[in-house]
Design brief:
With 339 residues, the protein is α/β, with parallel strands linked by helices. It has 2 domains: 189 residues, P-loop containing nucleotide triphosphate hydrolases (Rossmann fold, 3-Layer(aba) Sandwich); 150 residues, Rossmann fold (3-Layer(aba) Sandwich). It contains 12 helices and 12 strands. Helix 11 links the parallel strand 10 and strand 11. Helix 6 packs parallel to helix 10 and helix 10 packs across helix 11.
């Protein structure tokens, strides 16, 4: 299994990837991480020993492409020489450099590498901007919050475009996601995939219930949890335009997670209004996804069940139904393989 992992610089994605490697090792799997930029630096070292990640994008595009091709050949040879291992290729599909994007990867670059899946690891833009300020190789680049937002958008868009053209899936994963989700995407890809929807507005009221419930979901399915990347626009955006961009990215990111899931499970343990939950269930319903709703209240509006497939007033009944759905999906996957 080959996974191409895409992210903007400063995302701290290696923590999630390393935890997944540890989890794989505990389960008898050999999962390795190879950093594309590091391999490009190795390829360039014979020509220029002064090159490092902070100066690599300054190279002429043709030279950059040659180094990339040499690095990809080296990675491919390593993979072929170790057929018992699985690999996460840690890279970028683009750089944001001197106020503009530089394309790093294109369709042809994956003809030899042939990833089985793509992942784009998404981080809160405010934290990304702060992280880049602290990195020595970025201190003089002055990549502000606005440019981080643009780079994040370009990275996800480019990886989506490449993966779809190759007939593969690009999974968006929050940087704080539980590593079991990434592990199962790699090793148990036929598992039921669920987007967990709940109110983000009243986190002090219901987060304990949500945390407990999501932990139960993870025993049944691969879970995409929106809390794994809380963009927090109101904390970082210092003007109206930035706030609008981050808000819009929040919606697109959550819709992307819904689109890559098999179904949406909504958890409403308290009667609090959430425009996000309403929007997510309508998006899921209108794109053909199953929507299950936990709603432990006797009274509700005619609109409450309209955009859902099934309502449950007991968590135990919802979880039992999800286990049945999961078993049916796995049975179908096994039948398809046997045929």
């Amino acid at each position: 299994m080959i996974i191409f992992s895409s992210a903007t610089a400063g995302s701290n994605r290696t923590k999630l990837e390393s935890e997944t490697v540890t989890l794989a090792k505990r389960n008898g799997k050999r999962l390795m991480i190879v950093n594309l930029v590091d391999e490009m630096i190795k390829a360039a070292s014979e020509l220029n020993r002064d090159l490092d990640p902070s100066t690599l994008p300054n190279l002429d595009k043709k030279v950059l492409d040659v180094l990339k091709e040499d690095a990809l050949h080296a990675i491919s040879d390593r993979i072929k020489g170790d057929p018992g291992a699985d690999y996460i290729i840690d890279g970028h599909t683009s750089f944001w450099w001197k106020s503009g994007p530089i394309s790093l990867m294109d369709i042809d670059d994956f003809k030899e590498l042939k990833p089985d899946i793509f992942i784009t690891i998404v981080s809160p833009p405010g934290e990304l901007a702060e992280s880049l300020k602290k990195k020595s190789e970025w201190t003089d680049k002055k990549v502000d919050l606005y440019e981080v937002l643009l780079w994040s958008e370009v990275e996800l868009y480019t990886t989506d475009l490449i993966s779809k053209t190759l007939g593969k899936t690009n999974y968006t994963i929050g940087v704080s996601e539980d590593p079991i989700s990434l592990y199962n995407l790699i090793y148990n890809t036929d598992m039921l995939k669920i987007y967990a929807s709940y109110s983000m507005e009243h986190r002090d009221v219901s987060y304990n219930n949500v945390t407990r419930f999501v932990a139960q979901l993870r025993k049944i399915a691969i879970v995409f949890d929106p809390r794994s990347v809380d963009l927090g626009a109101y904390r970082y955006a210092y003007d109206k335009k930035l706030k609008e961009i981050v808000f819009n990215q929040t919606v697109r990111r959550d819709y992307h997670m819904i689109d890559q899931a098999d179904m949406v499970v909504i958890h409403l343990s308290r009667l609090v209004y959430s425009s996000g939950v309403d929007s997510e269930r309508m998006h899921a319903h209108s794109t053909g996804k199953k929507v299950f709703l936990y709603f432990p209240f006797k009274k509700y509006s005619p609109f409450t069940p309209y955009f859902v497939d099934r309502m449950f007033n007991k968590e135990a009944e919802l979880l039992k139904s999800l286990r049945d759905v999961s078993a049916t999906k796995l049975k179908g996957a096994r039948s398809a393989i046997s045929e």
